[in-house]
Amino acid sequence: MRLRCLLLAGFASGLFAQDQDRRPTPMPLPPPPAMTATGKAEAAKDFHSYAEPSQVLTTHIALDLKADFEKRILTGTATLRLKVLAKSVDHVDLDTRDLEIEKTEGSKDGKAWTPVSYVLAAKVPILGSKLTVSFPKGSHFLRISYRTSPGASGLQWLTPEQTAGKKLPFMFSQSQAINARSWVPCQDSPRVRLTYSAVIHTPKSLRAVMSAHNDPNAKRSGTYRFTMPNPIPSYLMAIAIGDLEFRALGKRTGVYAEPSVLPKAAKELDDTEKMVTATEKLYGPYAWGRYDILVLPPSFPYGGMENPRLTFATPTILAGDKSLVSLIAHELAHSWSGNLVTNATWSDVWLNEGFTTYVERRIVEAVYGRRQAEMEAMLGRQTLQQLIETLPAADTALWFSMKGRDPDEDTSEIAYEKGALFLRTVEEAYGRKPFDAFLRGYFHRYAFRTVTTSDFLHYFQKHFIEKFPNKKGLVPIQEWIYSPGLPKGAAEPRSDAFKRVEAKLRPWLDGKAAATSIETQQWSTQEWQHFLQKMPESLSLAQMKELDAAFHFTGTGNAEIAFLWLQLAIRHGYSPAEVRLRAYLLGIGRRKLILPLYAELIKTPAGKARALEIYRQARSGYHPIAQTSIDQLLGVKP
Length: 638
Ligand code: BES
Ligand code: ZN
Fold this sequence. Notes:
By secondary structure, the protein is α+β, with helices and mostly antiparallel strands.
């Protein structure tokens, strides 16, 4: 049932019919948390961590880790500086997953160390193993000696063959949502903010980078030092090691990638500095110093990850024409919404992703114009419609309880698209100027802090809504946040460009024009996406052939267009695309692009056999996060 959310990105409508039988009865809709007796506690609780931040806080972690590419493990120490909040506290509960603990030591000054005892509890689904470390009163430092497991959920170790250069291995992390605990023992809750420093030991031929201060001119010495001086939640700790080179894009922006990828990446991401400047103009100063981008090998399980100072990105955005760089706008936007002002729990994730999707489109509008931003908003609106029509109602509220669920599996695009549409609706109702001023104030007020949905609502009520009494009740805010579906009066993005695509498609669908007569010369990726998404279920094989002959979809180098085409190809049994489908599933590990294709395949018995056969070959190349999702979809036992 977890897969439902993830699959929606792929418009895998048929799957849901089949999924019905396996689906437990939909959860009853949680009442607005502020209205229940226990609601407040429930709304504020982080179900995904053993940490007790009201007792003790980690304020800094110093890592000293060696990357062992043979064993595929990190080994070393994590030294935690603690702030004890309640006098009687003599232990700390940390989150771990598949860590092997060698020893724990305590210290009053961070210099003289004495052994302290610990208990590593049995592994629990979703959460991992609670690590309880005891310490004598007055100890404010803990040093944990440990090693990760080769299957650590937050790390992927790549063989040289899985990289662009094919000569050297690669390793990278993905901590969000709850995978930091698989490589650092920590209070793995977004409520806890900490600074960090690290010494990373690697083979001499490789270079390490982190979500921290990176020295673009670092020599390959095998020892790399990092500091992150701003307090961040644990899910933003990140590391990558590989044959990485750097190229500057602007005075405070740049890109890291493997040497053979670097020129293309630098060209594609050439507008990054402009984006940073545009965002600052809208929402205030960029708080993190440099903004660099790391382009990863294609097995990266996400499109992008907003690791502070160093966004991690999939190479599938390198389309050659900058048409997919809104992903960079998105990750950059997180430098305000998410990294500066952070969701307190994963039930509040819309505060990160909804705000970020809204800001992303504002950046796209500022840098690429309204026409482009509106096309992207329309694609988002269509995704949202699909979600509302297919998800259980309770999962379509902006805030919903993540209790008992895995945020790495169950975070859906509702948080993104309904969140963004809510903010756009408010903007249109109250005016752009006052709303921009409000957002600037909100980011400033909560900078380097965490917020729950009800914190936001209180602040919003007091500092925005109440300022405009003549607009009272214009936007039903409670309904937007706590009710399923869409309230009346939601903003309606419109795209004339998409209207024109539809007008050109119609005569062809009616058999009145040849595909080759459709004028597509000026189309951007988004227009092609819209074109392919408008294809009816009744498409015939002959029509598929005609489309392919006219537009060469099977051979496209654009990963997003190929994704939509391959989905159609599976659905309509278009066999000339079979070779490409296999290559695609073997070559790309971005979960959003591969999971829906597997889901489409398994709708027929023959397709299921093919899915299993391809997956058998592809699985070892996927990131653990993608493996978990596809294992579940295909019913494969790891
Ligand atoms: N922070 C997210 C990725 C994420 C969310 C990881 C929740 C784990 C749990 C990142 O900013 C993101 O949203 N990435 C998107 C790209 C974006 C353009 C929609 C993705 O990877 O597809
Ligand atoms: Zn995001």
